[in-house]
Every structure is written in C-alpha cells, then in structure tokens.
Design goal:
Blueprint: E1 19-22, E2 27-32, E3 35-40, E4 45-46, E5 57-62, E6 68-72, E7 77-80, E8 87-89
Antiparallel strand pairs: 1-2, 2-3, 3-4, 5-6, 6-7, 7-8
Length: 97
C-alpha cells in the first residue's frame, strides 16, 4: 500500500517532456522536443542535451546491457552506451536478433 499519498515536485526547470527512463546509476533520462537530457537526482541538475542539434526525442528504452535506445521524430534511432557521451545514428539493418 502506498503510504504517502502526495506527489512532490523535484525539479521544475523543464516544462515539457515526451519520455522518461531511470537508469541504474541514479539518473533520469528525459526526452523532449529540444533533445535528450540527463537529470542527476544527487545534484538536482539537468545536463546539456546529449544529442547534436535540436530535435524531438519521442521514446527511450534501457536494455538489459544498460544501453540507452533513443527514438526521435525524423532523425532516426540512436544508441547511447551507458556512462559515456558516445552515441551514434543506427542505419537500416544495424540491429539483428
């Protein structure tokens, strides 16, 4: 049973969001119409955008290996390796089962 029946604002500096995912390192990944941001709960601060340019991030998924998959609206599917700023656009057929 949920004991606290209250929702508290943690940080309201971002006013619009499309998707949110928590990683295992105490961060929240936040996608909106202006890019991809990492929120540090310990520092109560957002990073600069992790993607080049301004475009809409429409979906986020963290897989079993800790990889962050980023879906965009018109800029393709991106993959980000955990705990680095390395990223890359995936080409058609790059992901196989």
């Amino acid at each position: 049973m949920w004991k606290e029946r209250e929702i508290k604002v943690v940080n309201n500096s971002k006013k619009q969001g499309n998707c949110l995912r928590a990683d295992g390192g105490g961060h929240l990944w936040f996608g909106n119409d202006n890019g991809l941001f990492r929120y540090s709960m310990a520092d109560d601060a957002y990073s600069a955008s992790y993607v080049d340019g301004v475009f809409r991030v429409s979906g986020l998924c963290i897989d079993r290996q800790g990889l962050l998959w980023i879906a965009s609206d018109g800029r393709g599917c991106w993959l980000r390796v955990r705990m680095t700023r390395r990223r890359g656009l995936l080409s058609a057929g790059a992901v196989r089962r």
